[in-house]
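sanity check this:
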Amino acid sequence: MSQEEDFEAAFHAAQSTGLPYLSPMGPMILAATHLGIAKDSRSFARIFDLAHALVIRECTSLEQELGLIETERKDVRTSRVFYRLTDAGDALFEAKDD
């Protein structure tokens, strides 16, 4: 599979859970993290041409409301958030990877 096909499959795996994501960006962040495409908010915003503030807002929701990512560190100067999937976040993709 191509990287685009892998991303689309991972996006659909995260989206199909029925979780109350803040926006469609939620499954995109999870899929990009799962595939190693982007593991911080600034890189994700740049790759997908999105406002960094919107990505941070979605990351906050994914962490605090859904428990699917966890912050590893924050850059105070740039507001960049470095994150990783939690066990619950990883579980969204386990069935699709088998």
User: Anything to note?
Assistant: The chain has five helices and two strands. The mean pLDDT is 94.
